[in-house]
From TrEMBL:
Gene3D superfamilies: P-loop containing nucleotide triphosphate hydrolases. It catalyses: Couples ATP hydrolysis with the unwinding of duplex DNA by translocating in the 3'-5' direction; ATP + H2O = ADP + phosphate + H(+). Keywords: ATP-binding, Coiled coil, DNA damage, DNA repair, DNA-binding, Helicase, Hydrolase, Isomerase, Nucleotide-binding, Nucleus, Transcription, Transcription regulation. Belongs to the helicase family. RAD25/XPB subfamily. Its main location: nucleus. This is DNA 3'-5' helicase. It is found in: Nucleus. Residues 362-524 form the Helicase ATP-binding domain. The lineage of its organism: Eukaryota, Fungi, Fungi incertae sedis, Mucoromycota, Mucoromycotina. The keyword Nucleus applies. Residues 254-284 form a coiled coil. Residues 228-243, 813-827 have a biased composition (Polar residues).
Length: 842
């Protein structure tokens, strides 16, 4: 939930907010939005320049009784977020939303019968903040509203549906904010039709207003009655019908139907019927599919004027400056200049419902909208990108973060679509291919395209080829990791009609995420992790933080040493070593396959050697990596491997069912989510009662606890509950564990203190993923010994880890199985001071 006010006086708080709403003066003339970093946690930090919100509108006291005047005995607990004075609607029980008049945060009751529809609507108009099992939190921002209008929602519809869903009337301040943010956004589109560029809008007055701007009107093209360019000026706009998208089919939806699919369809219909009845009952037809409904109505008219191709960039820039950013849409079906690409999904390829939903946001009106699709790790972003390419059917450029990903994309194109191998070209430092024919696919890396340093002759020739032609589709993988300036270079050097960004975690520690909105387009869709897990598309994961006490000797040194040595001391803590050994043994006995992650290479090697397990880090040769990974996949004796951060992304090991993290890089929320992604794709995710496990081992009372809390935040916001394990049963009395005696512990301490400074650094991985996935499954399969992989049967209690471990919970529960463990009760009192602070802050 959003921060609970800390007792500041309302007067002081309001003055702070006034600051947020004040349009910052021209400190940065070029930026399209203003950022007030002192007020990071507030809504409306980003204010479109035209948005001229009246701060006094947010002074809630004019609505009724302010909290200062309230004398009841609970209001003070909620501080400035006590909204009991808001008038509840008489049928509020059947409405699932609360809207804060002060900061636009929206709280959704996840247990409401119409929560699913409400969720669809909220994802379209606001940013999800936190989505645990029962209560979800969203926030309205200028960008989220920009995204809403870009997928076809209209201002009044947004307000009306919010009002229908809300338990209280939508506050005036929020209505006003929505109006101001949607006033100009999404009203103007840049469309390429029959190879001519048009500025298009359903609002002729908006186009007339734009044409009054000399920069824009200078780029306008006039045509005579023979459709030839003329200098004769003609004031009228072209009028045409709005495209309906009716006859557009996204491949992979109807194909490959079997009995199971029919059954699902039947269930869907039943659910649909049930939903319709609920809608009737609650009178809250959400209306986000209004666009589709409109298809049945008479086609709406759109107005447009043509602009010169070489003026597109200038006009786009000008429109951004005057707060009328042009949405980019590609009318690919009417593009007759760029040759078509013969590509379709294979008949056996069936895309999943959430993949279809995300694509329908992109192709909702029969054209391709540029924007970003956010799906959890392992949920199949690649297939979404491939399906989009199969829909557009024009030349396509795919950019990824590493050469390993390039090969994976190529392999996936061949796996899911009917594209021929000679129609796909790979452009990396090792391979510079061309596709045969007029149209094709090129897969490359961001650095190959954006790096302007001296290129080899071949690379330069390839770049000339990429820059000299028009691309129907630009697919951008892992958009959250690529620096904004790299994007800028890519987007300006490559002429592409439609751009699609893919990511799992739209979070960056550098808060640069907003750049993506303007460089690629708005977020079109964001899936809910818990929903996908509950439907079996990604694995259910039990997350736990294991608190390992420091031995007195290690702790004494920890308090004395400098930061780098400190890190090594808490990573090499003998108790952590033992916990790691204990968990490996426990999960190996259950038949799990375990990946142990360590960012610190020194620790990685020490742990792996001591526990006699194979390890891979940046310095491991390619052959050795493949050998280790193949053994892990197919050899029943190799059930645990140690990986440095080279394995964070793109490693596809669906056999892995358990992750143990012994050292991590500070507080990166993204890294934590990516690591979790390694087990979300677990092959066995649909087995009854199956759970994957994610353990983070932290040394108690050290800085590591702070970082760990920070890292988990993204996953907690997706609904994961991290349990705290304070005691691994039987660990203290187990004589087989390493570093049992004081002498052994002291020897370890000595070796840590003698370690070179140079060894203490985390691995510097430039290539984001260079472990690679094993694509040569046929070779590997030969070595496999079927039936030998042992998986012991366990009780559900054991599956929940309840046999040997004591849990306590400090985060919101997701209704997970750990929470039901009777040992939980009462344990939650035992919060570490760091967590207490965290909880209070929450
Ligand atoms: N519709 C589908 N039908 C069957 N399998 C699918 C489908 N969509 C995705 N998959 C499979 O799911 C797995 C994960 O897909 P993919 O690698 O594209 O995930 P991702 O979202 O890119 O993950 P990450 O962000 O971790 O790289 C792959 O093995 C892929 O083949």
């Amino acid at each position: 939930m959003s921060s609970i006010a800390n007792g500041q006086s309302r007067k002081r708080k309001m003055s702070g907010e006034n600051k947020v709403f004040l349009k910052a003066e021209s400190s940065d003339e070029d930026s399209d939005v203003q950022l007030d970093s002192t007020l990071q946690n507030k809504l409306y930090v980003l204010v479109p320049r035209h948005a001229n919100l009246d701060p006094s509108a947010l002074n809630t006291s004019h609505h009724g009784v302010g909290i200062d005047q309230k004398n009841d005995f609970v209001s003070h607990i909620f501080g400035n977020e006590d909204y009991t004075w808001l008038p509840l609607k008489s049928d509020h029980d059947s409405r699932p939303l609360w809207i804060s008049p002060e900061n636009g945060h929206i709280i959704l009751e996840g247990f409401s019968p119409i929560a699913e529809q409400a969720q669809d609507f909220l994802v379209a108009i606001s940013e999800p903040v936190s989505r645990p099992a029962h209560i979800h939190e969203y926030k309205l921002t200028p960008y989220s509203l920009y995204a809403a209008v870009s997928v076809g929602l209209e201002t009044e519809d947004i307000i009306e549906v919010l009002n229908r869903l809300s338990k209280v009337p939508v506050p005036d301040s929020i209505t006003q904010f929505i109006r101001q943010c949607t006033l100009s956004y999404g009203k103007v589109k840049l469309v390429l039709k029959h190879n001519r560029y048009y500025v298009e809008s359903a609002h002729p007055e908006t186009l007339q207003m734009l044409l009054k701007d000399s920069n824009i009107s200078a780029g306008r093209v006039y045509r005579d009655e023979n459709d030839q360019p003329t200098t004769e000026e003609n004031a009228s706009l072209t009028v045409s019908s709005k495209p309906t998208g009716k006859d557009l089919t996204i491949p992979g939806i109807q194909k490959g139907k079997d009995a199971k699919v029919d059954e699902i369809d039947k269930k869907k219909q039943e659910l649909e019927q049930q939903r319709k009845e609920e809608d009737k009952l609650f009178g809250a037809v959400v209306g986000i599919d209004k666009e589709d409904e409109e298809d049945d109505d008479e086609a709406e008219q759109v107005h447009s004027f043509e602009i010169q191709a070489d003026q597109v960039e200038n006009i786009k820039k000008r429109c951004n400056e005057i707060d009328y950013p042009m949405l980019e849409e590609y009318d690919f079906r009417n593009d007759t200049t760029n040759p078509n690409l013969e590509i379709d999904l294979k008949p056996i390829t069936v895309i999943r419902p959430y993949q279809e939903k995300s694509l329908s946001k992109m192709f909702g009106n029969g054209r391709a909208r540029s924007g970003i699709i956010v799906l959890p790790c392992g949920a199949g972003k690649t297939l979404v990108g491939i399906t989009a390419a199969c829909t557009i059917k024009k030349s396509c450029l795919v950019l990824c973060t590493s050469s390993v990903s390039v090969m994976q994309w190529k392999q996936q194109f061949l796996q899911w679509s009917n594209i021929k191998e000679n129609q796909i070209a790979v452009f990396t430092s090792d391979q510079k291919e061309r596709f045969s024919g007029d149209a094709g696919i090129v897969i490359s890396t961001y650095s190959m395209v954006a790096n302007k340093r001296k290129r080899s002759y071949d690379a330069q020739k390839m770049m000339d080829f990429l820059e000299s032609r028009e691309w129907g589709f630009l697919l951008l993988d892992e958009v959250h990791v690529v620096p904004a300036n790299m994007f800028r270079t890519v987007v300006t050097t490559i002429a592409a009609h439609a751009k699609l960004g893919l990511t799992a975690t739209l979070v960056r520690e550098d808060e640069k995420i907003d750049d993506l909105n303007f460089l690629i387009g708005p977020k079109l869709y964001e899936a809910n992790w818990m929903d996908l897990a509950s439907k079996g598309h990604i694995a259910n994961v039990q997350c736990a933080e294991v608190w390992c006490p420091m031995t007195p000797e290690f702790y004494a040194e920890y308090l004395l040493e400098n930061t780098r040595k400190r890190t090594l001391l808490y990573v090499m803590n003998p108790k952590k070593f033992q916990a790691c050994q204990y968990l490996i043994r426990y999960h190996e006995e259950r038949g799990d396959k375990i990946i142990v992650f360590s960012d610190n290479v020194h620790a990685l090697v020490e742990y792996a050697k001591k526990l006699q397990k194979p390890y891979i880090y940046g310095g491991t040769g390619q052959q050795e990596r493949m050998r280790i990974l193949q053994n892990f996949q197919y050899n029943p004796i190799v059930n645990t491997i140690f990986l440095s951060k080279v394995g964070d992304t793109s490693i596809d090991l669906p056999e892995a069912t358990c992750l143990i993290q012994i050292s991590s890089h500070y507080g990166s929320r993204r890294q934590e989510a990516q690591r979790l992604g390694r087990i979300l794709r677990a092959k066995r995710r649909n087995d009854e009662g199956f759970n994957a496990f994610f353990y983070s081992l932290v040394s108690k009372d050290t800085q590591e606890m702070y970082y760990s809390t920070k890292r988990q935040q993204f996953l907690i916001d997706q609904g994961y509950a991290f349990k705290v394990i304070t005691n691994l049963e039987g660990m203290d009395s187990d004589p087989t564990l390493v570093f049992k005696t004081k002498n052994e512990q002291m020897d370890l301490l000595k070796s840590v203190l003698l370690t070179n400074e140079a060894d203490l650094k985390d691995e510097d991985v430039r290539e984001l993923d260079d472990v690679g996935r094993i694509t040569d499954r046929k070779v590997a399969a030969k070595n496999r010994m079927p039936g030998l992989v042992k998986r012991s049967t366990t009780t559900s209690k054991s599956l929940a880890g309840g046999d040997n471990m004591a849990y306590m919970e400090y985060s919101r529960t997701s209704g997970g199985q750990f929470a039901k463990n009777p040992r939980n009760s009462g344990a939650s009192k035992e919060h570490h001071s760091l967590f207490k602070k965290h909880l209070k802050r929450k």
